[in-house]
Amino acid sequence: MSMYPDPENFDPLRRLLALKRHEQPPPGYFHHFSGQVIARIRAGERAAPDTAWGLLWDAPWLQRLWAALEARPVLAGSVGVACCAALLASVVLFDGNTDRNSAQAVPSQQGMEASLGFSDRSSRGSFFEPAALAVFQLTNSFTSSEGSLFPVQPVNFIKGN
Amino acid sequence: MIMAEPLSRKASKPLGEAHAELPPPEPMPETELVKRARGGDLAAYDDLVRRYQERIYATIYHMTSNHEDANDLAQEAFIKAFHALKSFKGGSSFYTWVYRIAVNKTINFLKQRKNKTQMSLDNLDYHVEHDPDFVALISDKTPRREVNLAELQEKLNAAMQRLSEPHRLVVTLHDVQGLSHEEIAEIMDCNIGTVRSRLFYARQQMQAYLSDYLK
User: Is residue A3 part of a domain?
Assistant: First the structure.
């Protein structure tokens, strides 16, 4: 017998590998296996996502993306930085747009009255003071139909109440 | 019972050996079970899981050398298969399809686990001591006589873990589980030539790693 195995004769190796067939899970393991699978399927059905976010999270492409990010921390960091930059850029752009919108809206007195709901015309003089103008701009940015971020309930201020 | 019995041997199990007085109930065809499971019949799916659980578990176990990981991945593969049944067109057999899901899941898992291999090996059954190959291995007048079972099992698994995932998979499916080249090509979605060349290379690697036991 040669000291080294014949590189083309794999029979001894195959016999050795066949021994792995004797590796067995704990006794009774397969008696419970299918029951556990079915129980997990049932549990999953009970907790099935009914919200849009839940359905989106279950999407295979998102799961694959998440798995890829988990496996590569550098990539995950880069994606995080990119997301932050995008968020920052959108905030800056949005801010610029609201400044322009409010600058256009200031000359329209009718619009101001409608927005703030002033019923007493005598208060109009003080309204153009800087502090009041700032309040108007803030309110206008929230309630303008195009750039509305939050739902705002308009309030009427009636003098004398 | 041998866990990873080759398919040919499993298929040829004589049915007539059962009790004479009560004939065993006719097993439902796989296609019928798949149809019912697709309609949400969990009892039918339970039957399908029972049919293939040992082979799926064994494949994943031999790939990971870890019982807990194999348990989790095998369960997840069957759960994923159940939810994906609607996309199963029936172009291949159900078991090839489930195999493919299990194999993809395992390979993804191994890619994430890279360099964190921790073996948690199953026990060897008592049949191994009567296995002629093992008896021959320890009775020869060579250094192998000193080999004990646990050490041999560990070396064998460590050698398997040194192979790349595709090579380990081919060795597992062919040399451990006894699948044909054609079946492996279908599961791995590659041609038979690729299976053969991977098997040859993997065996050469294994032979080098285990040379002490193969002299």
Answer: no
pLDDT, tens digit, 9 for 90 and up, residues A51-105: 666 667 666 677 777 767 766 778 888 888 998 999 999 988 888 777 666 666 5
Residue of B nearest to A70 (CA): B112
Residue B53: name the closest of B90, B87, B102 by CA: B102
Beta pairing partners, B120: B66
* Alpha-carbon distance B62 to nearest alpha carbon in chain A (angstroms): 8
Residue A89 lies in domain? 59-93
Complex ipTM tops 0.85: no
Reduced to 3 states (helix: H, G, I; strand: E, B; else coil), residue B124 is strand
Asked whether residue A161 is domain-assigned, the answer is yes
Beta-carbon contacts of B157 under 8 Å, excluding residues fewer than 6 positions away, are A20, B65, B119, B121
Q: Test B61 with A14 for CB contact under 8 angstroms.
A: no
Identify whether residues B108 and B163 lie together within a single domain: no
A30 closest CB neighbour out of B54, B78, B125: B54
Tokens of B196: 């053969």
